[in-house]
Predict the 3D structure of the following.
Amino acid sequence: MRAVVAIFAAAVLFNYPWEVAQSMLFADQPPFPTRLWHCFVASLGDAVLVLLIWTTGVAVFRSGGWFQPPGWRRYGLMLLIGVVVGVVVEATALSLGRWSYTMRMPRIGSVGVIPVLQMVIVPPLVFAAVTRIDIGRGGEAWR
């Protein structure tokens, strides 16, 4: 359980600044103080998606610490699941009208590139941070 909490907390901390930075690429944004709250809520959802990536890795590699030590297979899984999750979330939200983009959002088809890159770039950073913290504690979280 400690591992799940650590991953979730790190994922919120890493995703929040990304959400704030990319918020100007989304249409119909509220005033800045309200936008900060919306970005925080979005970062909670992003953290759940990072846990989904972790859970997939647990199923594939049969270990809670599957991302330690890093390797090409592990990063490949993070990349693959990150792209799939990012595209599915964005396409679904767009089709449901949950959000839309400004003209500044780079896209492939109708899907925004920046939010998909978020699910590719941030999870490895989260797992690296959690590994670093865990090593500092003697590596107990994954046993």
